[in-house]
Amino acid sequence: MRLLHAELLKLRTAPRTAIGLLLAMLGLAVLGSGSTASSADESPFAIEASVSDILDVASLAVIFSLILGILVVTWEYRHGTITSTFLATSRRERVIGTKLVIGVIAGALLAVLSVVASLSVASFWIEIELERGHWELIGRIVLGTAAWAVLGVGVGALLQSQVGAIVASLVWFLVAEPLLGLPLDEVADYLPGAALDRLMGVDTMEAEGAGAPSVEHAYGLGVAALLTGAYAAGFAVLGVVSAVRRDVP
Amino acid sequence: MIEVDHLTKRYGNTVAVDDLTFRVTPGRITGFLGPNGAGKTTTLKAILALIRPTSGATRVLGKHYSELDDPVRKVGAVLETSRYHPGRSGRNHLRVLAAQAGVPRERIEEVLELVAMKGAAKRRVGGYSMGMRQRLGLAAALLGEPELLILDEPANGLDPAGIRWLRDLLRSLAQQGRTILVSSHVLAEVEQIADEVVIIHRGNFVTQSTTAELAARAAAGVRVRSPQAERLRELLSTNGMSVVVMDDGALGVVDGTPERVGELAAANQIVLHELAAEKATLEEAFLELTAGETTE
Predict the structure, then answer these.
(1) Which of A1, A4, A84 to mutate to test the interface with B (most CBs of B within 10 A)?
(2) Rounded to the nearest 10 degrees, what angle do helices B106-114 and B130-142 cross at?
(3) Cα(B271)–Cα(B211) distance, integer angstroms
(4) Does A130 contact chain B (CB < 8 Å)?
(5) Which of B237, B238, B269 is nearest to B253 (CA)?
(6) Is there a contact between A13 and B96 if contact means CB atoms under 8 Å apart?
(7) CB contact (8 A) between residue A87 and residue B99
(8) How far is CA B43 from CA A209, B39, B50, B54, B241, in A?
(9) Using a CB-CB distance cutoff of 8 angstroms, which residues of chain A are in contact with residue B86?
(10) Is the dihedral of CA A47, A57, A125, A112 positive or negative?
């Protein structure tokens, strides 16, 4: 509990980065959902689908959640506060473990905020009526976003370098993984980014809601959730082991 | 209190600390000395479980640091690498540590008072001077009222008044029965407060002795000035002392005491204008011990 309190204090007392990240996410959510919603109501057929379109925009929270997870660890290395943190709690797995908990909480919170902001803005143009499928999609977005904050904490603890960790993970998910997918078609669906796409994918909802499957998937939502969870847990374990074993610079 | 046993730390091909063994006695101030790059910080980091030794072991209060139950209340440390988030205020930095260690908030104000940082506590650390950072580091180390303090070059960045303040603070902390290990590459910083010194050089143990012993080990001598210098010189030589003539005409008596020189002069009715014990400083002893191979 002490550690959790200390971690929350860290977030509260050095708020510029965290607030900047939150504002950037909300800004994007507002812009994205605003433009999606305002264009959608011109086509007569789109109104039904556009709530999930808006939720698709809201799912961009996952990138911010990943970065936040990375920051929570790497800013301690970057600013050297990791020394006093480890001196005060010499069992390092507890320090990283607390940061993982913070990641889950903050990631889920980011997802909820992003969904609320996107839907609120969209409600100026379209009527928001959340059906069961929508709620499930929101749940999947929250789950995926929280999982990726955990993944971020793991990657951060593994790489320790702030810029390095952010660049490496963005390059992986935005460039490397899509490129790898071309020659490695079989495996590609099971890579972390693909698993997340599957978990937070809008098309699934349409398929279940409207009864018109648009894409063939390699596996179901349960497997996607498991895979995403496994990747997050895997990196979390790697991060903890790395933090415990390596010398503090 | 602190035990270092055959500690070795290698970074690639570089040996930072080489088979180092020493003990720090409770209730005293021990100076941990060596030129820059001697391996002092590496040793302290190993003691504090921040790095893994290549071989050997370290213990504080009988345990490895990572096995201490409530480290903040037992050991306070200031390392050169302890840095701060620049956007956080000094007080908030302490609040985070206090929360982590379960130290009550009132204690924050006490330590801020102790290091004379009350006024600057609400400012962002990014704007602090080096000296203020050192004070904040000390405040953090004192949060849990630990019985053992480990300070790495705490005088770095302090102005002369600050160094004097630090000396007084450490002295008063030692008087409360705390054990203090304080590293420095400048002997003058610790010679006035340390009861004992451990000297290392290039990762190797050089010596451990009380400050007094170390001073005595340096060659002592007597400086004497007389209008009858030539006669005095003969006299001292015939009495088995080696005498050198210094630049200003005074005589340096290498193996004599002021008492002996004064008595001989009086018995032979030689006028003396000056008679003083030449105290070799610890600095000279230190330089002598760590000389030779320092050129990189």
Answers:
(1) A84
(2) 130
(3) 36
(4) no
(5) B237
(6) yes
(7) no
(8) 65, 6, 10, 12, 44
(9) 79
(10) positive
pLDDT in tens, A208-227: 444 444 556 778 888 999 99
Q: What are the tens digits of pLDDT across the range B95-109? A: 999 999 999 999 999
In angstroms, rounded to a whole number, what is the distance separating the alpha carbons of residues B11 and B9?
A: 7
Contact of A6 with chain B, judged by CB distance below 8 Å, is answered with yes
CA B140 remoteness from chain centre: 20
Cβ-based neighbours of B107, under 8 Å, separated by 6 or more: B98, B143, B145
Do the Cβ atoms of B211 and B197 come closer than 8 Å?
A: yes
What is the distance, to the nearest Å, from the Cα of residue A245 to the centroid of all Cα atoms in its chain? 27
In angstroms, the Cα distances linking B5 to A29, A77, A221, A246 are: 58, 29, 56, 21
Q: Smallest Cβ distance to B66: which of A10, A14, A91?
A: A91
Is A91 in the B-facing interface, judged by CB distances under 8 Å?
yes
Minimum Cα–Cα distance from B144: chain A residue: A88
pLDDT digits (tens, 9 = 90+) for B157-166: 888 888 899 9
SS (H, E, C) chain B: CEEEEEEEEEECCEEEEEEEEEEECCCCEEEEECCCCCCHHHHHHHHCCCCCCCEEEEEECCECHHHCCCHHHHEEEECCCCCCCCCCEHHHHHHHHHHHHCCCCHHHHHHHHHCCCCCCCCCEHHHCCHHHHHHHHHHHHHCCCCCEEEEECCCCCCCHHHHHHHHHHHHHHHHCCCEEEEEECCHHHHHCCCCEEEEEECCEEEEEEEHHHHHHHCCCEEEEECCCHHHHHHHHHHCCCCEEECCCCCEEECCCCHHHHHHHHHHCCCCCCEEEEECCCHHHHHHHHCCCCCCC
Residue in chain A closest to B72 (alpha carbons) equals A88
Alpha-carbon distance of B91 to B81, in angstroms, equals: 19
Question: Alpha helices of A41-131 — where are they, by DSSP H?
Answer: 47-58, 61-79, 81-88, 92-122
Tens of pLDDT, residue by residue over B191-206, are 888 999 999 988 999 8
Cβ-based contacts under 8 A for chains A and B: 83
Minimum Cα–Cα distance from A3: chain B residue: B100
Which residue shows structure tokens 């507890």? A94
- Spans of all domains in chain A: 2-245
B105 touches chain A (CB under 8 A): no
Q: Choose among B84, B92, B99: nearest Cβ to A2.
A: B99
For residue B92, is pLDDT > 90?
A: yes
B37 backbone dihedrals φ, ψ, rounded to 5°: 80, 10
In chain A, whose CA is at the least distance from the CA of B87?
A14
End-to-end Cα spacing for chain B? 35
- In this structure, chain A runs to a length of 249
Averaged pLDDT for residues A46-66: 80
